[in-house]
Every structure is written in structure tokens, then in C-alpha cells.
Write a structure and sequence with these properties.
CATH architecture of one domain: Orthogonal Bundle
Largest sheet: 3 strands, antiparallel
Shape: globular
Strand content: 5-15%
Helix content: 55-70%
CATH class of one domain: Mainly Alpha
Length: about 170
Amino acid sequence: MAAAPRTAAAPARPPAAADVEDFFTALDSFARAVRRARGARVQAASRWLTLSQYGLIEPLADDGQRRVNELADAAGITGSTATRILDALERRGIVRRTRSADDRRAIAVTLTADGRRLFEAQRSWVRERERALYDDLPPRQRRMATEVLGRFTELIDELAPGPPGDPA
């Protein structure tokens, strides 16, 4: 039996206005959820890290030691915000700050043994949640989700500093 002849792909139709609005609504909702998550507090009696704390110290789990400004840069926050977060983490015995051996003006941050155990337990929980979401997606959507998340990352990085130039 002969294969069916190939036909030219139909030209892409412009999205319906309702589809575009649904996309904008979903993207705005996603951005708000990210902002809420970054500012959320854990329950008062909890030993867990907030997502802001988790994101700030994540490089320490792999690199062992970082300067405060490096952690702030990696987390996309100011040095003063990083210092406030580290103050709370140091009081809880999760991190230790010392003078850097390379530069006495710089402060080096490391995880304590308790901090490493807490971070690893939380990272395991986070990965389980992420894996569950991934496993729930059909294979085609898994590939698409990876691409779309990369594009969202690029968009957020573009939007973060605001529009270029002065407003008219």
C-alpha cells in the first residue's frame, strides 16, 4: 500500500483574543505565585526554610562556601537583603559567617552540619514535588514544559529591570 501524499502544513492562524487573554491571565497568576512564594513565611513552629532562604543558600550545598555578595547575586537580591536573611539563618544555626581567607574584607558563608541536613531534607522534598508534577505530564507536554519554562525564564529576566529608557 502506497503512503499517503504529503500535504503542505496549514498556515498558522492567529490566536483568538480570548486565548491571548487567558495566556496573559495565567502568566500574571504564575508571576504572582512566584512573588508570594518568595515572600512567604513558614509556620512559626516550623524548622523548614522559606523559599527565599532556600534559594539564597542553595549554592552552598554544592560549592561549600560563598561570599555574601555571590549568594545575593545568584539569588537575584541585594546584598542588604541577603545579609538580613543570613542573620536569621545564622541565629538558627543553619549558616556560619567568617572572614574570607582570600580577602579579609569579605565575609564567607558556609552551611553548618545542621544547616546541611535541613537543606538536603528540604531539597529532597522539593525534588519529590517537582518529580510528581513531571510524572503527571504526558511525554509530549514534558518536552514542551521544559521549553516553555526556559522561555518564561528569559521573559522574567527581561522584565525584571523594567523598560529601557525614561518613560515618555
